[in-house]
Design a protein that fits this description.
Elements lengths: L1 E6 L2 E4 L4 E9 L1 E12 L6 E7 L4 E3 L7 E6 L4 E6 L8 E11 L4 E5 L3 E6 L1
Parallel strand pairs: 2-11
Antiparallel strand pairs: 1-3, 3-8, 4-5, 4-9, 5-6, 7-8, 9-10, 9-11
Amino acid sequence: QVQVVESGGGSVQAGGSLRLSCVASGSIFSISAMDWYRQAPGKQRELVAAITAGGRANYADFVKGRFTISRDNAKNTVYLQMNSLKPEDTAVYYCNAYGVSGLRSSFSSWGQGTQVTVSS
């Protein structure tokens, strides 16, 4: 079983920065990709950024130039540096990790989410 835990959320004013972290642990053989999603009240969950094991990153248009995703493969950890935050970035941010478990079966695990609130 693979567990995913996010941290680093909080409340900031518009224009501020936050850094989210996500750690995957448990029976892990390899992690193919780790992604960040977010869900605002009354809205669907949406992809924010994704990064492969090789470090290739993709971003949603609404965060390009403001957010940076990075990964430490040795620690099974992914980060999301969020700069120039806007009130519309307010949401619960979720991490998803998927890959192959120690039992050589595929997994896709979600964390519980971390709240990010940006005030104007």
